[in-house]
Fold these 4 entries.
Entry 1:
Amino acid sequence: MLYIVGTPIGNLEDMTLRALRILREVDVIYCEDTRHSIKLLTHFEISKPLYSYHEHNKDKVGPEVIQKLKSGQVIALVSDAGMPGISDPGQDLIRKCIEEEMEYTIIPGVTAFSTALVGSGMDNHAFTFEGFLSRDKRQKKAHLERLKGERRTLIFYESPHRLKETLKIMGEILGNRQIVLARELTKKYEEYRRGSLESLLEYYQNNEIKGEIVLILEGSSEIQVDQNPLLEMSISAHALYYMEKGFTKKEALKCVAKDRGIKKSDIYKETLDL
């Protein structure tokens, strides 16, 4: 059995009793950063073998985890903060379990984006979580272009050193919408800063920012009458459109899947000749 265990995003009092019991019972724990997770385990007096599983080693370590599960070991996966599988490679491990028909179960915990959304006061009847925008400026712009007509509230994760660039590009592409920046959630210096994209950019041009950031952005108020013309193309032509703009095939397929609201695997066969 693989347990996907949610952990606190800042305040250790948010650790659930069930999560603590599971971490004490498993044979092995995998985490993003052993240096970070050892602090959590030490705080709760849990002593278990601890191994790293992260974006840069997932292709090597993922199969090792599956083999341990097949041998009968009980394993827990935790992230540095929040729920594994949300904007981290835990998702890949879950897919491997599905492919190999291995059992897994979710031990729910705190999630930064839902906490920020509720605290923001923005409309939460319908929203879309977009995770981290690309570090590549071209891809970041393409991502935001696709969201131009999205009427639901938009949620992003962002790092402090990329914040100003992101706010600037958002303003250029999406217009001067209302936004809430949530920072250091559940921690001592928790903060919600509200205003327009323009006003927040001006503020952070003159003020330093630290900590984990969630951006809650107002959806479009414009009714989009015209359908995206790219959707009228064949899937191959749609992918080629992005590739001609400099995207790799992998990036192009991701864009096509996003535009059409389908899985990337569903369009792969139709683009083998590209």
Entry 2:
Amino acid sequence: MGRPDVIPFPLPETLLADVLDRWALTLDEPARPGGTSSWVAPVHDAAGEARFLKLARHHADAAHEAEGLAMWNGDGTVLLHGHHRADGAYALLLERCEPGTELGEVVAEPEQDVVVAGFLRRLWREPEPGQPFRRLTEMCEQWAEEYEEEPCEDLDPGHERLGLELYRSLAAPAADDRVLLTDLHAGNILAAEREPWLVIDPKPFVGDRTYDVTNHLLNCRDRLFGDPGALVERMAGLCGVDTERLRLWTFGRLVVETSWWPELAEVVPRLAPR
């Protein structure tokens, strides 16, 4: 089957045809965008098994998605059935989640907290020699540098300075670091048959577990803007991490995120260290 026109970003011209042939896949319709850097389509393999085919541009944060899925091996995540890298892009053959409804579409936020926290505690893994996962320090340094190139004009300079300092220092390697998902939120948890919910799109790094909680917080807009302290306290308790450390991480991350989400500047003072 020819390459559909719905792929919304540049990919090597032969990638789709190559993986359809490589894995003996039949491409179903419709395909669906997976975001600004990925594309997902339902397929069937040679045995008639329903799968998802994901094509994605390479980007640093998701560099080891396949290796992470292989490590978790379906324990709370979708199963990886195939992986192929091409020039600047990659393809994943994945377990198909049915019905595939996002957690955030059908479950209220307070219940989402419980599901997200349960997956975080379940999926944190002790790093092992030979794994390719990069250190959280690398990602945090990159994001801090990008903020410094385009800072938010609405931030108090003292909060800005302290937030960047914390964002870098909290990421320092420690003995109890774990393999993190770094992008777990209600949109990356899908209803499935093998388990009630399965995680998709992990972006593995090795670092402080507390950081991993912040992504869900930033996806709870109403509570983040309404009572950020209560939200931090609730998630810290559910995830078994230190409340004050999560507050500091969230403060630092909010500072960095204001470069593209300036409205967060109104939340920053409310989580500033006492």
Entry 3:
Amino acid sequence: MIIRFVIFFVLILLVDLYFYQSLRVLTANWQPRSKQILFYSYWIFSAITISLLILAAAIPPAGAGRVFQKYMFNFMVILTFTKFLGFLPLLIEDIVRLFRWLFTYAGKQTNVPGEHAIPRAKFVSWISLGLLAVPFTTFIYGMVKTAFDYSIKRTTIKLPNLPDKFDGFTIVQISDLHTGSLPGTHPYERAVKLVNDLKPDIIFMTGDLVNNIADEAVDFVPVLKQLTSPNGVYSILGNHDYGDYYHWDNEVDKAKNLQHVKDIHRQMGWKLMLNENVLIKRDDQSIAILGVENWGHKLNFPKYGIMAEAYKGIEDAPVKLLLSHDPSHWEGEVIPKYPDVDVTFSGHTHGFQFGIEIPGFIKWSPSQYVYKQWGGLYQEGKQYIYVNRGLGFLGYLGRVGIPPEISVITLKKG
């Protein structure tokens, strides 16, 4: 661990040294006093950020310390990444300058040091600075503002076999809460109010309540238990809820943590669907809700879900709505084996928390290179899948171009 930190800090220092050279070029005509102020400001800022990162690594990862660690690490990653972007044009130019100098030196064979040195082009330094400033500002804005800028996305799905009394039935779907990534409960207090104000007929939460451990969600119980609808809140587990990405001392502790996660769902009054189903009735008509544990068809995500168990007993239901965290389950098993599952509700992708979406014009995210169905509504024959882009975030504590989502899906007969 210490070796990794040393390597990380050495890389930060090297990027800092290299990037500082572009600032020297841009300020070549400044007064000596101004250059001195720039020098001290630049290196004092670097020293402070590195010191804060060391402090973040040293304090116990609990409570406010955990939040400080996460945000400080994200800030440093953003800063280093954007400096690296600025570093690339400088590196490319230096390689070109080296070859130009070697060619000039070989042609004139001078012994005067520096006589044929090739000066750094000022416009390259400006490009370098721009490549730092634009993404740095964007990613910081994505942490401070966009991460909690909840978007309500409305979709209508027409089903010819929908019972008449369910015509206009509204579903609110949320997903990927990742409570362990949030600085406090207040963002979800607002999200819960937004959901309740929509007055849905039913609420689905399609997995990943936590990042790794159950304790991350404990403080959120009083907030999330306020979610309400006439037909209740139905939830499933996501790949992060099993604690598979955390180092446990033994399997017993891991099993206890998973049980704690399940208990928290029940404490909030949510119906946790563990490879099972339930019928939602309106007078003499009904539709079926199925919920499976995580089942991934890509990237070696675990296959805990047992679709056959979730399907058992509702074969004759006129409409079947499936909650399955990983959207790859849809093409991997649902479509080929269960053609009468009308709509699947998934999450998992987060829309990569980065992309561009302009309705009717462009819809792009790096997620699409891994998941064919990564955000929004998709159709294959008579079957649909809706992929929620997530309410929370993981890794990068923000969102750029892909806001956190509250989905409103209305079922219509037709």
Entry 4:
Amino acid sequence: MTKRASEARAALVVLGACLALSAPSGGAPAPVERPKKVAADLVLEIEAPKSAIAGKEWGQFKAVLVNRSKNAVTLVQPGDGSDCGWRTPLIWWSAIEVNAPGQHPEKQPPFKGGRCGNVNSLTPSEVFALAPGKSKELTPWVGAPAFPGPGTYRVRFCYQNVPDQKWRGLARHDLGAMARAQASFACLLKSNEVTVTVVKGKR
């Protein structure tokens, strides 16, 4: 082996050693650490009357989001179509008689009933940033549980924000608001459970 070839081989050995020392184990790129937003730090609270009159539940139930994390999160108010899966967020109420078996549904139940093909257009005010330690009431499309009749029920409300949800219905959504909604924070939140006694109204 000539002197020049020997020197070249030595240089390659040194270069290989340097590359081996600089590369992470397994040869994969070192992961980039990014701050994480934890859905468990977002709390959904509901307030309800202890007693409600059958058929007059609307307006008696209140749902509030509370941000207990260290990061601001962008979320979306429920709107026209949220209760039937036509837009984000998906929302649903669950009411189960106290003495009846069963669990609250983990996902939005299939929509029953008819509706028109138009929906209200998304506006900038419906997409909001919730700062750490702050709360936001969900209005005005929260609705109310559908009670099958008089009785005492366990009630829960769920809110599922799905940024990549395919929107349905005819509308003229604000493009800026839609872009913010599509970049919002994905989460599934289940409220506290409350007990409500439903009574017959006077005729």
